[in-house]
């Protein structure tokens, strides 16, 4: 079996003024520096205005930094937007695209998510593509169909395990303290890998990291991250506490 190095990604969402962002990033950097090596990759995704602050605070540690979104175009008349090239220029290596809060708040479609992911790849960033069902879709038994449709619509052609990470985030589990059963997570992650094999290739599917996201905390991380097809976590609330985020990483 191919070993996929776990990725623990923190989505800070719209949280963190400069001083808080620096303190949190420095706290993560200190933990990295206090140990010789770790068995996982760490990614911090702060809000745009503090990306430079965070990049500076984690420089030399191996902790990666990413944006929470990008525009599909390289530049132009798109007031308030940020391009993937701008993120790369600030020192980012990753960008989250298609987070359910973007899909809900900004009406982003699968096609737009794919265009953003393509822009990320063109700028040399790794795209973290989020998929996941709402509670109503889950209750209607549509989870696998929804997730597979999102993947089909948002995975860029030619994506590889080096350029794309998938995050399965059930919308109803985000910020609620609720999580699917381990069996349900295992089933969806298995289906995601099978879908990636059909859309891309068996090789891409075997190597691509598929993260779980939605109320991951130190006390449930070990069980979730212990599932065969779960290659890390996308963490919201718990990534704002250095101790909790580190504990989640150490649970891999
Ligand atoms: C998220 O926003 O991607 C997320 C998973 O949030 P939380 O961990 O707070 O549920």
Element layout with pairings:
Layout: E1 7-11, H1 18-34, E2 41-45, H2 51-58, E3 64-67, H3 84-89, E4 94-97, H4 100-106, H5 110-122, E5 126-131, H6 135-139, H7 143-154, E6 164-168, H8 182-199, H9 202-207, E7 210-213, H10 218-225, E8 232-235, H11 242-250
The site of phosphoenolpyruvate (PEP) has 13 residues, from strand 8.
What does the model show?
This protein is of the alpha/beta class and 252 residues long. It has a single domain (7-33, 42-54, 83-250), classed as TIM Barrel. The chain is built from eleven helices and eight strands. An eight-stranded parallel beta barrel has the order 1-2-3-4-5-6-7-8, surrounded by six helices. Helix 7 (143-154) runs parallel beside helix 8. The longest helix has 18 residues, at 182-199. It is globular, with a radius of gyration of 17 Å. The two termini are 17 Å apart. The mean pLDDT is 97. Residues 11, 169, 174-175, 213-216, 234-238 line the site of phosphoenolpyruvate.
Instruction: Decide which structural class fits the backbone.
Output: alpha/beta
Amino- and carboxy-terminal Cα gap: 17 Å
Q: Within the CATH hierarchy, at the fold level, what is the topology? A: TIM Barrel
Secondary-structure element order, N to C: EHEHEHEHHEHHEHHEHEH
Strand order of the largest sheet: 1-2-3-4-5-6-7-8
State which percent range the strand residues make up. Answer: 5-15%
Radius of gyration based on Cα positions: 17 Å
- Biggest beta sheet summary: 8 strands, parallel, barrel
The general outline is: globular
Question: How many separate structural domains?
Answer: 1
Tell me the name of the CATH class. Answer: Alpha Beta
Ligand inventory: phosphoenolpyruvate
Mean pLDDT comes to 97
Are there runs of 5+ residues with pLDDT below 50, and where?
Answer: none
CATH homologous superfamily grouping? Aldolase class I
Q: Work out the number of β strands.
A: 8
